Records
---
Amino acid sequence: MLAISLQPEEFDLALGVQRWLIVFGTVLLVSLLVSLMASLATYGGTGPARLFGRLGYAACDFMSLSPRRIFAVALLTFREAVRRKALLVFVVFAVLFMFASWFLTGNSERPEQDIEVYVGFVFTTISWLVLLVGGVLSCFGLPEDIRLRSLHTVVTKPVRRNEIVLGRMLGFGSVCTLILVLMGIVGQIWIVRQSQGLTLSCRVPIYGVLKFLDRTGAETSKGLNVGDIVETRGFIEGGTKGAAVFQFRLPKSQPELLRFESRFEAFRTHKGSMDRTIQARYVLSNEEKGLRVPLEKFNVAEFSQNERDVERKISYTNEKTLKKEEVDLYNDLAQDGWLTVHVQCLDRGQYLGASRGDFFVRELPDRSFSAGYWKAMVGVWLMVVLLVMIAVTASCFVKGPVACLLCFCVFVLGQPAHDFMDKLVTGKQVGGGATESLYRLVSQANQTTPLDNQMMERTLKTIDRLPSGSLWIAKHLIPDMRTFSMAAWVGKGLDVPWYSAMLPSLAVALGYILPCVLLGYFSLSLRELESK
Amino acid sequence: MNQTTSRQRKMAYFVGMLVLLAPIIGLGMPGSGTSGGGALARMRSSYDLGESNLGQVDPTSATMNLVLLGLRGIAVNILRMDLDYYKDHKEWSKMRTTTESVILLQPHYIEVWRFLSWNLAYNVSAEWDAVPERFYWVKEGGKFAQRGTQRNQENAELYWDVGKTWSQKVGRSDEWRYFRKYFVKDPDEKSFKGQADPEVNPEMKDNYLVARDWYANANEKELGRGQHVMMRALFRSGPYKALLDYADALQRDVKYEPSSDVIKEKFSRARSIFDEGYAEWVSKYGKERYRTGKAEVFMEADQNDVAALAKENGLDAGVIRREIDFFQKTTNYRYWRERARAEKMPTTAEAHRQLYEGERLYKSGKLSKDPTTGKPGAQEMLEEGMANYAKLLDDFVELRSEDLTVEEGMWGLLIWRKALDLQGKPIPENYPLKWLWEEHQGLVASLQDRFNSMGY
């Protein structure tokens, strides 16, 4: 059985922008209200006027941004980073790659699996090293300048605070970009060397829309569960009308040959024939025209890709008339440019598992490995840029070590803990929210069992739901670092898709620019630079 | 106010350091080829706790542990969580790599080797549909345990686990027929070119014979450091039982052999293996001494032995007999002794062959003797087999209560009755194994179902 295939989920940009506006607007509003109250408390009646005056000054600062000054600060930052021996990170990088083979066991029988491991190693190593260097440099840059008073030589020049923040971000971002590009080149050479004799591919998938039919042929929301802990795949029953129905948007160029690629999972309820694997077939259909074109059955190979070429003109035996007929893929089978493919399991009593990522139409010809590799590297770059932005912002209002700690927390919350936050906000967390968990802890109640006192359970759940709005805001304040991980696509020899991988990562990184610059600017403006 | 000068303080620190250094050197100095080193090094050596005493030293593993300082436990926890995640998400290549990482950090934690090896051989292999793929993962599990033995050369449990994987998993799972074949001829033609995987089976032997070697090694290591897997007498039965299982597997194999000559040869080989197995069972395994709470006994003991053991242990002969009986029952000693003794007899092998050949003749429609060639048909072959089988059960009464033995006899009887029925002949008043048919009527329905499903 092959690994659960990557599940592409199209990113809804409009929804993303809407959420960004809600979160950004709310935070802005709360900050304004707090500032207003603080100004009233500090300056009395003149406070609001002073506050709005300061905001007006800030608006002027932003209106008169000078790219030349920003570039000058960025150049200075770049030189400073080089002077601080940031490029020594290459020594660590070289050492890791020299000894990588010690830690990565090659598998002579399944070399194709190794590519995934090699790609994973390269991306993990590069990400961690660049993040570490970028994070530390960015966190300590401004606080160190303040400590050594070298910032005075900058702020006394006609440079605005927002230009300093932007220049720093740009400077550190450039250092990280340089390091990333060089490491990326070495990483690619290393993967190619390690994978000698193997084909490094970058297949371009066109994913479809999936729905299921149950054993009676009726449409159902999902397939059967055969006991998998992770219910990514839905299963269909063999020898029945059960089917996984995929609908693909066909390429407008209407190529003469379409290649289907699948990675279904088989599940046996009885031993059956052990001489072969479970059999399945594709049935191309056009419901409007009442056409059903079954293709030749195939044995489901869980390990390797099931590839099937479909030519434009298809000869088939009509199941009703039992006569040989011919259809045209685009003119007869496609409906408004969409092709419907039913996947059926042919073995009675056995099951076939399918998920959206398991079956796709492959665009031909394949792209070069470099295309996918560097797209995924862009993902790493966006993550590094985001971290640099957060680190520079943090260094505007706290000292270096604290800024480091803050960045580390953001990173941890953004990667492994984001899943937990998602569950907490959506109410899917096993054991409930904070109050219910506390009650279970004290009463030694299992997380998975319902509480004995139902009234108590309802009350606790209601209490836990009260701060759900603020939790939702908090969840969206922490960047979802998982968005930037694209190495899995490259490891599996697939192209990194734009809508489900590149676009969301770009949107996340872009979404933090304005908040970070604003926060950094106001923090630096209000910071007492004489204080070490 | 401190009156000492900076130099005086530095001197004091230096003297303090020297004083503290002396016990550290005395305790922690590493041993070398000529000297035993410090007290800790000597103790490590005398208790066989040094890396090199435990097994092969892996520089990678040592480096990882050194680099992680005190964070090894945390790193292992994270890796184990990753491992479970990859397993749940069926990310097999990543799971395999994570397994290696865990073991780099815990090379001498035996339970980790045991669990991960079992996980690969039993859990992961079952996730695959194609039998060659399942075999690949069984091999991965076995190989993993084999590597564990290299890193922990004195640990008997890991040797025993390897033996168990090659005997039980390969020889007894649903796919045993394929697995046994693949064990001597790997399905991965590209890598092994029709040979066995040399890492697993360099001499291309039967899986049970390879398992036997591993069990024998486990027994040898067990003498040194003991084991914590199971009762000692059961643990040590491994190599002897593997030989008997090998003979049993040869008998099972014949059902998939098309040629009568090969069937005859396999039954004959199984008989000689049972002969060898019986000799080892009674003269070696039966004579191994085991300590109970009360006495030290061995299982193959006659009256004289019992008397001698009673004297040696200072106990009553009845107590010794009860202790021996306890061991024999726990290890199923008497059954295997009787089974091997029965199977080594020429008439037994002949009975198996005749019953099986009779079934084959029935299947091919040859119900009675061919009048032209004089070759026996299913009826005659089965009657000869039944007679020999009846003799076997008369001579070895203990086998009468053994399920598989009863089933084989009943199956032969059912087919014989079908053969007579098809020929329109009545069932005679008396026939061999009549008592067996009458005693086990409860089995007839399930055998009839099996008969129907085979489409004869």
---
Amino acid sequence: MTQLKGKVWVFGDDIDTDAIIPARYLNTSDPSELAPHCMEDADPKFAHQVAPGDIIIGGKNFGCGSSREHAPLAIKAVGVACVIAESFARIFYRNSINIGLPILECGAAAQRARSGDVLTVDLAKGIVTNLALHETYQAAVFPPFMQEIIGAGGLIGYVRYTLGKEKSPDG
Amino acid sequence: MGLTLAEKILSQRVGREVRAGQIIVCDVDVALTQDGTGPLAVRQLEKIGMEKAARPESTILFIDHAAPSPRKELSNDHMLLRSFAEKTGCRLSDVGEGVCHQIVAEDYAAPGKVIIGADSHTCMAGALAAFATGMGSTDVAMGMALGKTWFRVPETIRIEVNGELPVGVYAKDLILHLVGLLGADGATYKALEFAGETIAAMPMWERLTLANMAVEAGAKVGLIASDAVTQEYLTAQGRPEDYKPLAADSDANYERVIIIDAAKLEPTLAAPHTVDNTYPVTELVGTAIDQVFIGSCTNGRLEDLAIVASIMSGKHVAAKVRCIVVPASRKVFLEALRLDYIETLVEAGAIVLAPGCGPCVGVHEGILGDGEVSLNTSNRNFQGRLGNPQGSIYLGSPAVAAASALTGVITDPREVLGYAAYR
């Protein structure tokens, strides 16, 4: 897992999956069609102004609500490199790992960051640096079990690998 | 140290004692998707070349969220689900059968079963002491293919409820009160275990309402020990053999115990735009509403419709209010027809729609206009949930919904509930 660097978009507490991708757009699971509506009900400008590599900062309980995997898919498809939050809702957390969207729980980073700040993130070590504030934070690192899933590019890659249909976990 | 109900179910299922915090791989008894999440699961299963589900007889593809389909893209998704079910031997529950969780309760859930669903309210089956939880499409897809999934055994918050619920106060008020108390993330990653004399005396239709909304506090599961009420319910569904007694040990280790006096509860509503934004009805009385939605997996059962019919009988929905009623399943709909509830509701001016999720998820059958307000018996009031971020949603019990539909403003049901009330 590489070092990420991106501009921050700050959202508040309890950002629900209806805000991340409203159900009225769930007539497709094609990520490229979901992307233009990402975060539409929380910030209608977001999907048009976000740049590839940018970072979403959430407060508590990011991704609460429905089980729709379209939510992390939309965030990934719009080009967001990583979501950092004080805490994540359970299903969103699993879904993100399963589809290969990097997420980190890091209360200090989430509380301090302001929209427009630039962060660097070392996913393997869980180190987040806010370049605007010159501050560094330690996030929880994924347990080895989840690192295997992430290393395989998500759950599908992992299952293919464990079923022996592919030679390496990179597929 | 004894086991919580969550630890006990998972221990039995994996055949060794497991404790909160352990990560386990566990067999899955029932796996389900719905038409919002199913197409994504099917595409994932096609990627790994699944030809047959591990347990096709208990792998169910439901079509309930946008049913009948309001637009061609969703119709095509429905076609994909139908053809996949046919190819792989999975079961299909098609348009008009009802909400997935209601049908799981009627036909599949039982004490000790492990149930995963690509829908967050899968936790409803916890009312029957099943370890039932919502996941995403990919997780459930892999559960369908392999017949297994992984869990972190959750810590448990015990919710002990004692005393009698007052007239006009129901399980819905209790769970809204509790979500307000815990907050939307107060139980994230954890199990809720409902216990106490109020729960022991509570009929299954209300237990289901409680377990259904456990996820609104972030919980993984909402569990209730199985007992005579569970046995009676399973017998009524024609599955008496599925019963087994399951309860937490008396010396189980709980992360936290919350004690609630049921006798002190009032009719409770969640105000826009979060479920934990709760108020007693007395603080919201008089708020104007444009629409009422009575139904959903939370409150679309026969007894819910009985309460609504008893309040609306011989009266009429307020002039500017649309009152939409959606039975949770075909079984519920048929019983409500036989008992004349539907006739009562239609005569009172209600709009009765086919069994399913109805307007709940905001893709059809009751999308709000700009600035409109709806009062729902469902489980979520997020901004945009009824298809329009300019609309607002209150959540309440069927009694609150029925009383308010008649007046056009949020109304305390205790004012209209006579001696003939369901309770």
---
Amino acid sequence: MQAAVILAELPEPGPGAIPENGPGRLAVFDATEEWATFSRPAESTPGKAPVDTTDLWESQVVVRGMHCAACSLTLEQALLAIPGVSAARVSAASQRASIVWAAALTRPSEWMAAPLDLGYRLLPAADAFAPQHGRKAAQLALWRWLVAGFCMMQVMMYATPAYVAGPGDITPDIQSLLRWASWVLSLPVVFFSCAPFFGNALRDLRQRRVSMDLPVALGIVIIFAVSSAATFEPQGRWGKEVYFDSLTMFVFFLLTGRWLEQRLRARTAGALDSLMQRLPDSVERQQTHGGFERVTVRRLVAGDVVRVLPGEAFPADGTIVLGDTFVDEALLTGESRPVARPLGASVLAGSYNLSAAVQVHIEKIGESTRYAQIVALMARAAVDKPQLAVQADRVAKPFLGLVLLAAALAATYWWSTDPARGLMAAVAVLVVTCPCALSLATPTAMLTSAGLLARHGVLVRRLQALEDLVSIDTLIFDKTGTLTEARMGLRGVSTRRGVTAAQALQLACALAQHSLHPLSRALVQAAGPGFTPGTLQVFDVQEFAGQGLEGRLTDLPVPGVLGLVRLGSAQFCRLDGAHHSLRVYLADALGWLAGFDLDEVIRPDAHEAVSRLYKVGVEVQMLSGDSYAAARRVADQLGIKVVQGDCTPQNKLKHLQALQQQGRKVLMVGDGLNDGPVLARAHVSVALGQAVPLAQAQSDLVMPGGQLLMLPNMLAHARQTLRVVRQNLGWAAGYNLVCVPLALMGWLPAWLAGLGMALSSLLVIANAARLSRLKEKS
Amino acid sequence: MDVLFLLVPLSVLLALAVLGLLAWAVWSGQFDDMESEGQRIFQDETMNSPQKRPADMTS
């Protein structure tokens, strides 16, 4: 704990001052309690063969210094080269990395230090000073942009006379004066505003690899060198033309594009960030004498009492011990309306307190909270690379090599006839190509979708699932806990003459409260607050698993009932009658006493969800472990045509495989508890319900709130997502195909090339941003 | 036309001065939060510290 506090108080290194953050400083992360704040134990490794599986950790880190999607592969390779690191996934779009490492072989300081040599800096994802760093970086980016923009305007003023004047209108000394002025104002643009391009290009050169900053930096250097030569030595061999206006303009366009891109990315893919950075930094904790002091959230322990003001987020899971309020749990459960949380109610970490100050008794903190589980899940999805993105990345790298080659060819081809045109053609080729658009096309769209779905209560565990959802034509529902709620309702009570329904229910509840069987719980729930266990005493309660309960009444609290009382199936109560999974009997020494008919409660939105699914052309089926009759009844109410009852998990699996052999793409929706293997085999799987521990759910998507209506919406949204991905890929490829030949011919001025490049990246991201709103299809 | 030899360098100096002003604005955080300042006026005055209230309206 202490180490982190010290680290946070160290002076913030200047942005880009990577060497300052040497390995020595990273050593503070080597204490177990430190790395535990941004890591969690990992079980298996999908990547390299594990060296030591006993003490594996998975860490989430933020990557700084990564400007291009092509970098992510390099960083991954560098991390994997460290002994002890068994898996590394880097996402360029979310600027995050997930690293699995063995504590026996390496330490965080080791794998955090290694990327420093490559020019990347890793920060613990949960680290408190990450936002602070972001602010400084944003200010610097804005400043670079402003310098470029302002100087561009001024340089344009000095360039205008040369464009409008006829030959001989400007005397040579005035002309050279204007060129000098342009040169002076180009200096800050080249040496300050373009510093990131040069820095990244140099780093890439040193690593003997190519990225998109290299061609841009080359273009800047060439134009500036040629124009400077023309300024100082107009009769020299580099010609007498200056291009300061083109130079400043395309730098300005590039920086504008990059700046907007960062902002858009923060807004869209940043839905994940907003989820991850929901916990407050500090909170008011009650001291032993009753006063409150502000402490960092990391110092909280279970048992503390904290005061949470309206507008603040709850720092941990707990119970309200003072006050009533409304909370916003939208990101955690998908419930978009404010939820009332009176005295004694439990609240979740990461939800917002809306209306009044409350005091909360902390029960769970850190990794064990539901919030932490969701964050871990989302962080995993954010670094997941869908197949389309992997392919695009693979294309992007050789593409860059080709661009450099093409630029060199253009320069040599035109050189003999018209050196100026040759140079400008080479520069235009360098600037106009945009492998970035290609690399960004898929991940931005998918991350935006994942962020949107998260806001509506669907957590995406595997981005690939979004792509797979599109081809789904069959949907299989589990019944219990999926189409129906986990609880059951009491439909009717029949009793022996002389015993009232209320008495029978009281008696049944007195027995049932000793059991956790779903039917017992349903009975207790059905009795509601009218049931007071104190009035009835049952002794020697015994539970016979799967059959029923037995207990003894000593006196006669209920007239006419004596001796041994049994609650359970007909057979257990020694009664004749067909077995019915939803009927519970009560019997005493005299025989039948009462019968309770229970009914499954169908989720309120199930009917509409099913009919909408049929409408979009998805065949809906239901497989249930319950009896066929029970399954059929629910199916009929919902309008589901294909139903199978009495299914064991093996039956379900067989049915699924049979469908898949017919070439169907199956989406399986279950509660994630007892149908894990079936969920794992389906093309796409959805687990819903609060019962599932999120980390253990076997499915691609998790719906903690269980809003079935999201299923048709989700399918429609997945289709829209893939459409956007295709548009993006098509646009990026088409843009490069059209612009590179134009630039090669020398028909594209440098400023237009800069504008095109900036716009092509922006268009891709803006197109993805369209996905951040859900289209409600009726 | 000779005056241009004075005016053009002056304009360069002026541009650099404006850049200096912009630098101050950026680094003192003027552009950090473009949205919430505009919404401050909608907030209850009691929520603000006394310094941030509009100056005495009566005087």
